[in-house]
Design a protein that fits this description.
single chain, alpha/beta, Metallo-beta-lactamase, Chain A, Arc Repressor Mutant, subunit A, 2 domains, six-stranded mixed beta sheet, five-stranded mixed beta sheet, globular, binds zinc ion, RibonucZ/Hydroxyglut_hydro, Sec-metab_biosynth-thioest, hydrolase activity
Length: 325
């Protein structure tokens, strides 16, 4: 009988983004896999190769990459591996790896229409130009197999796939029941609250996803798992996931209360609310702050604390009388 090694090792590589370093996990099993693939820079590759060597492997030993989600700081190095056979992730990651013109156009059209409904003044629409390639040089490729909730990781049967959409539509986490380990990607980070980011619907014409509501239910879903250790995409490995989950839910609810205070007796559009909620950040981080604002409004609408109406194509929000949080 051969005994399959099942160790996971953390490798940390730098990114040029505000989030700082990102982790890559090397997972032994029937295949040698990495979970996530850092950012596409030579610095990240050099740091990866160096640390990989310290645990006794070389890039040509890596057979499979599993991605927690499609963001550029998690997919970057997939083009660098000489003998990569499998790229495994949620089906929606594929469009981000291929970046075909139709998809990019769909993305741009979606935000154009959304920002119009949000009351964004003309001069801010220049941000749309950055949307096509928001973060510079991004890895390209394609998936060789797709995984969904309830599947196990190919080559690592004891790891179960849990769908955790919110931060990204494609976000998956991986859980190992025998020791309560969770590879949580960006869904659960100890030192920062992940942004639920707006994305277009998977198919043009469908209703848009509501990432804040998804994020909340993905957080609550994890409460039913016996999680001992979280191996996150950024920051320290940590325990006591349930405590962190409750903290995240509460701080989101607090920010929603702030949105209700901003609206007060008025009727406001999304752009106006965003500028009041993030007066110092909204110009520099337009996409992020708009995502967050829309997320809070989706939540408030869901709990019937605000109501939306449309005036001349622009959505206006007002507080609902007698509602409470
Ligand atoms: Zn991310």
């Amino acid at each position: 009988m051969t005994i399959v090694k099942q160790k996971i090792s953390q490798i940390t590589v730098p990114t040029p983004y505000a989030v700082g370093d990102v982790h890559i996990y090397v997972m032994e099993g029937e295949r040698l896999s990495i979970i996530d693939a850092g950012v596409k820079t030579d610095e990240a590759w050099a740091a990866f190769v160096y640390q990989l060597k310290q645990i006794g492997y070389e890039p040509k030993d890596i057979e499979q990459v599993v991605l927690t989600h499609h963001h550029p700081d998690h997919i970057g190095l997939i083009e660098y591996f000489p003998r990569l056979e499998e790229v495994v992730a949620h089906p929606q990651v594929d469009q981000w790896l291929k970046r075909e013109p139709d998809f990019l156009q769909h993305y741009q059209n979606f935000f154009q229409a959304l920002y119009h409904q949000a009351g964004v003044p003309e001069q801010y629409l220049r941000f749309l130009k950055q949307l096509r390639n928001p973060l510079g040089d991004v890895a390209k490729g394609n998936l060789t197999s797709m995984i969904l909730e309830g599947d196990s990781l190919p080559g690592h049967e004891e790891w179960e796939v849990i769908a955790t959409p919110g931060h990204a539509q494609s976000h998956l986490s991986f859980y190992r029941e025998k020791d309560g380990a969770l590879l949580g990607g960006d869904h659960l980070l100890e030192h920062i609250s992940p942004n639920p980011l707006l994305e277009p619907p998977y198919q043009p014409g469908e209703e848009r996803p509501k990432p804040m509501l998804q994020y909340r239910s993905s957080l609550k879903k994890l409460l039913s798992y016996d999680i001992e250790h979280v191996y996150p995409g950024h920051g320290k490995t940590f325990t006591n996931a349930a405590h962190l989950i409750n903290r995240r839910l509460e701080s989101q609810e607090k920010r929603a209360t702030k949105v209700r205070e901003i609206i007060g007796e008025a009727e406001m559009n999304i752009f106006q609310i965003c500028a009041c909620l993030f007066p110092n950040q909204y110009e520099k981080q337009f996409g992020l702050t708009m995502s967050e604002t829309i997320g809070q409004l989706d939540y408030l609408e869901d709990i019937k604390a605000v109501k939306a109406s449309v005036d001349d194509g622009v959505i206006l929000y007002q507080n609902l009388e007698g509602s409470h949080l």
